[in-house]
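User: ok so my PI wants both of these folded by tonight, can you help

Assistant: No problem, let's get them done. Here's the first:
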Amino acid sequence: MAIWITGDTHIPHDIKKLTSNEFPEGKKMSKNDYVIICGDFGLIWNHTEDGEEKYWKKWLNEKPWTTLFIDGNHENAYRLNKLPKKEMFGSNVGVVSNSIFHLKRGEIYTIQNKKFFCFGGAKSIDTMDRIEGVSWWREELPSYTEKEYGLTNLEKHNNKVNYIVSHTLPLNLRNEIQNVTYLGDKWYDDTCKYLQHIYENIEFEKGFCGHWHVDQELKKYTVLYSDVIQIC
């Protein structure tokens, strides 16, 4: 059994990294193995399921592994929140299909005996080019309730997990991102402040995120975009 993780897929734009040519390791995997997407999954986008969504859902379902994803800022938050739920890995997940599942904000999942604290969401920098309720949703930013829920769950686990999976970075790590010159409104994101609190007060081995469209190691965090790496 194995767990792999990568950054944004923005289906269909950045899904190529999970093709057989780009990710040959996937051929040896089974449904008991997992690929985690660090937000901006992009499959659930339009108001209702259309032909393109059906195509990519089928494409992912036919992959040997099980796909898990947290939400980013380029998601249809309304539809994600309406997904049917089931208990999986010790907490609730959103069910997209029988092998695609949404890992929810503030939940702690035990996957292959490792504890994952998951916290999606981030601020978009392109809201001026998007339409609320059509291509942008206010729920991209975590609510106070979601943040408190995450802290409460961490306390139940003695503030100790193996991994943190988020879409964006803790506040103090942003200065080290390689493409810092064009971050724009990504700089003003309260989600980063929350994750900084987690970073400073929670015992964990490693954090992973997407969002920044680079592949870079930053202290205890790995920022992912094109890379697909094995973590367990």
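One down. Here's the second:
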Amino acid sequence: MFGNVDWFTPLQARNRDMPEAKLTLSIPDRAWPGEITRAYPEACVRIVAAISQAESGVGLAEISGPDLDALLDDMMEHPAVQSMEILQHGDGESLVQFETQLPLLLFAARDSGLPLEMPFEIVDGEATWNLTTSQDAISALGDQLSAMGISYSVDFIQQKITNADDLLTDRQQVLVAEAVSRGYYDTPRRCTLTELADAVDLAKSTTSETLHRAEERVMKEFAATALDDVVESLAESP
């Protein structure tokens, strides 16, 4: 919204062996983003950078929405806001630097040892976080959020595969891409196995076996990452 800002941003951890999670958090009114965005439900507070100190937090926020001047006045008067400076102010949006004595989200991330990915948005008292970290770190974050009185829901946890080379061979990738583009997996199919084999210049049997192996790997990876509980319960069933 305001171009590049020279500011501190936390390290964003990326590891294909770690799950990706999405959390929705309900921020208490004692923290200014909670009360302010509930009072102005059409506004959006986008935290673009922040750093926690011993007993406070300093951050940079892009704030947009109607009644922006009134919102900024209320923010400045909020008891949790120690200082505030409007760096840029335009038509319906402002860039604000602030210091708060209740950076609850920052403290929760810090105390759980989790690098907080930014930016993230807060609308109508709720923040959405996308995280890529270990299961243990997500569990520790949940404990910290609960201890601070922040209710939350886990929208999803899934394994993140960042590179198709980690899952399929080059030959499988080419064949699956061709199959998808020609409608082999559509319902009803727009391309038969024979037509697909002719298109990639392979024998029908080779095409069928290669697709089957690719499908096997994709389905097993999906089951291992998204269906752990179901697979375990089936394995334990007599």
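Residues 165 and 234 are 30 Å apart (CA to CA). The radius of gyration is 24 Å. Good luck tonight!
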